[in-house]
Structures are given as C-alpha cells and as structure tokens.
Amino acid sequence: MEIKEVIGIDVSKLTLDAHIYVKGFAQRFANTDAGIGEMLAWAKGSCGPGMANVLFVFEHTGLYSDILEGFLDSSKRPIVSFPASRSSAPWASPGERTTGPMQSG
After folding, report:
1. Is 22 exposed, middle or buried (0-12, 13-18, 19+ CB in 10 A)?
2. Is 96 part of a structural domain of the chain?
3. What's the pTM value of the predicted model, to 2 decimals?
4. Helix (H) or strand (E) segment spanning residue 44
5. Which one of 9, 13, 20, 36 has the lowest number of neighbouring Cβ atoms within 10 Å?
6. Sheet holding 25-30, edge to edge
7. Inside any domain, residue 14
C-alpha cells in the first residue's frame, strides 16, 4: 500500500487534535466515539475517497488513546501508535535529536 497522506493525532483526555500533514489542515475533536466519527468524516472530506492510503499516527497514551485505537483498528484503518517516550520524534533513532518535520530521502 502506498501512503499518500498522514494524519497525526495529539491525544489527550478530552480532545483529539488532528493534523493532515500534506494538506496542512487541522481540527480538534472530542475524545469520544462521536468525536472520532466526526474526525473520520472530516478526514474523508479533506482527503477524498482514497482513505485506504491515509496513515493515522498517534502517541499511545493508555486509557486516553484506547478508544481511538480500537475505533481505527475496527475500521481497518492503517495506524501507527508509538510509546510516549518517542513522542517528540517517533521516526528518530533512540538517542537521536530532531527539531523539524520528518524528512524523506
């Protein structure tokens, strides 16, 4: 599968702050089943019908991210959930410091 868009989600107790990386769109949603449904509708409206090529990335925050992870997993959405210790740069090697967005190539 070719990933054409990445949606990064900052998970907190009450909210999900979603950012569509390539398009530069951002929106806040409630961290509830209804809020996650609204986020997926927003993502589909923003990314178009090719939602199979959209990767959802978020920090695993225990109870706060469990609803999101279960919802995305049951919807068969591609996800990457990384531990909190890697939240500042999940793509970096252990001990590597990064200050900017992920670079390819």
Report:
1. exposed
2. no
3. 0.76
4. helix 33-47
5. 13
6. 25-30, 15-20, 5-11, 54-60, 79-83
7. yes
- The three-state secondary structure class of 76 is coil
Q: Say how many domains are in the chain.
A: 1
Given a cut of 50, whether residue 26 has pLDDT beyond it is yes
Task: Write out the residue range of the structural domain in which residue 49 sits.
Answer: 5-86
DSSP H/E element including 36: helix 33-47
Q: Residue 78: which CATH number?
A: 3.30.420.10
State how far the Cα of 21 lies from the Cα of 102, in Å rounded to an integer: 11
Residue 44 lies in a domain: yes
Per DSSP, the three-state class of 43 is helix
pLDDT at 90 over 90: no
Residue 48 resides in a domain: yes
- Cα dist from 50 to 5, 25, 30, 38, 102, whole Å: 9, 17, 24, 17, 23
